[in-house]
Design brief:
Shape: globular
CATH class: Alpha Beta
Radius of gyration: 17 Å
Function: Excises uracil residues from the DNA which can arise as a result of misincorporation of dUMP residues by DNA polymerase or due to deamination of cytosine.
Largest sheet: 4 strands, parallel
Keywords: Cytoplasm, DNA damage, DNA repair, Hydrolase
Number of domains: 1
Domain Uracil-DNA glycosylase-like: 50-211
GO molecular function: uracil DNA N-glycosylase activity
Protein name: Uracil-DNA glycosylase
Helix content: 25-40%
Number of helices: 10
Structural class: alpha/beta
Order of helices and strands: HHHEHEHHEEHEHEHH
CATH topology: Uracil-DNA Glycosylase, subunit E
Strand content: 5-15%
CATH architecture: 3-Layer(aba) Sandwich
Distance between the termini: 33 Å
Length: 221
């Protein structure tokens, strides 16, 4: 399976790509994509890295694994392809953004415009079998994406990490909070949001305020 990924990441992760666990992971993923329907499309598995080069990353949002319904996943966490109905978590993200920034609720759930501005939309597991959430967990993806988070923390400064929900908060140990700005809240899923753990976190305005304080362009959410 050819890995479509920006050169900056290829260089940084070269060592990871050559490790035995990663070779076994790619063998597993290749076999699964041949055996059954998996998401996202093969060419978009590494879309987050291809869309947001390493040196352009300003914000990191950590998701779990891709949407597992037909036509939804496009390789960016929480994002769906143009014309696809917004999943509940994404709807709540947009509602919070609308309230926080006084924005219009967007028509499209495609977050490629965020990625193009330096928001790395990173799922910790990059593939999934259709209709089976979590089906590609514990195959090696987590080891790979943990290394990505560590590399960002070690090699860059003044990034914003948005950790939504318990799973994402578990990655806090990989991040140097002295160098980076970390915001945590409940997950935007209805279960968490309706219990009051998501709405009102103001992560979008707080991110932009920090970026501007550091002399960086804010994100046009």
């Amino acid at each position: 399976m050819p890995i479509k990924i920006d050169e900056s990441w290829k260089e940084l992760l070269r060592e990871e790509f050559s490790q035995e666990y990663f070779e076994q992971l790619i063998e597993f993923v290749t076999a699964e994509y041949k055996r059954t329907t998996c998401y996202p499309p093969g060419s978009k598995i590494f879309a987050a890295f291809d869309r947001t080069p390493f040196e352009q990353v300003k914000v990191v949002i950590i998701g779990q694994d891709p949407y597992h319904g037909p036509g939804q996943a496009n390789g960016l966490c929480f994002s769906v392809a143009d014309g696809v109905a917004h999943p509940p978590s994404l709807m709540n993200i947009f509602k919070e953004q609308q309230k926080d920034l006084n924005n219009q609720y967007p028509n499209s759930g495609n977050l490629e415009s965020w990625a193009d501005q330096g928001v790395l939309l990173l799922n910790t597991v990059l593939t999934v079998e259709q209709g089976k959430a979590g089906s590609h967990q514990n195959k090696g993806w987590e080891r790979f994406t943990d290394q990505v988070i560590k590399t960002l923390s070690n090699e860059r400064e003044q990034l914003v990490f948005l950790l939504w929900g318990g799973f994402a908060k578990g990655k806090l140990k990989l991040i140097d909070e002295k160098k980076h700005f970390v915001l945590t809240s409940g997950h935007p899923s209805p279960l968490s949001a309706n219990r009051g753990y998501w709405f009102g976190n103001k992560h979008f305005s707080r991110t932009n305020r920090y970026l501007q304080e550091k002399g960086k362009e804010p994100i046009n959410w």
